Amino acid sequence: MTELAAQPEDWTEPGAHPVVPGVHRIPLPLPLSGLRAVNVYVLDDPEGPTLVDSGWAGGTGRETLTTRLRELGLAPADISRIVVTHAHHDHYTQALALRLDHPVQVLLGRGEAPSVAAMRSRGEVAAPQEGLLRRAGARELAVAMGMHQKAEDAADDAPWGEPDRWLDDGEIVRAGGRDLEVRATPGHTRGHIVLRDAALGALFSGDHVLPHITPSIGYERAPEPAPLRSYLDSLRLVRDLPDTLQLPAHGPVTPSVHTRVDELLEHHAQRLAAALDQVRAGADTAYGVASKLPWTRRQKRIDELETEHAALAVLEIAAHLDVLVTAGHLVADETDGVRRYALA
């Protein structure tokens, strides 16, 4: 495994930080209350650098990217391609904005096609989360989330569109003499991909494996029916690959992706057990279960969370409960549009 270059103590520290030979990490600021930055990786290539992820279009992200590229003797016009791990604002939209100004090629996992199509009609078609929350028994939260999403859609002027090329599982992307193996890792989104550089001993893990936080599950415009099952399968897929450096989209670079995968699998095992215990205690909806569990590192109640975070919590528990149904621990039925659970 290639030796990791010394990293700043604060991973969000501005700069173009060397990671491994031929790779620099640029943290770009985000207009979010929770996540402060997203890592964009710059891969050297005599034909023009390749970026892994791109940041959020608008705000200071473009200016920051331009400044950091200049430190490397580059400009946005030099970028040859951008490989995007998934089609969330903070990864995809700046790639599309850059493409409007320069002939850069944008690549994205094929599984993101439904969400990209849905995002192009945002503001015209309601996001699915409001309906999913009603199904989870969270009627008041559903109303609040619907209003939140409508306001976000009205303020959203980020560009959306299809990539220049869809990527399939197992495909190889050539970048500066290195081979980046595309592995489909659905869960966080249905078309999420990671990029594995076997020769370098590094995995560009996007939001699939993050060092300090657990990624949201299935929070997108066209969510799949069983996002947690897909996510757990994708974690096991990465665990079965040889261990590598972890180059995540949020957080510091770490020496072992396997270590964090094991922690994430254990976290979800504990969450599945806790959800099952709450059904045993009498909770019968995803909202009922989520209301009994602590959230965030500060162990908050769900009614102490912001609307979007509360919605994510309820939908995550719904995904856990459905995994328990598939495993035969619970049964579920739907009455008056609400999905209810009981012990099998």
UniProtKB/TrEMBL annotation:
SMART domains noted in UniProt: Lactamase_B
Domain of life: Bacteria
Membrane-spanning ranges: none
Coiled-coil region: none
Domain Metallo-beta-lactamase: 37-250
Protein name: MBL fold metallo-hydrolase
Species assigned in the record: Pseudonocardia halophobica
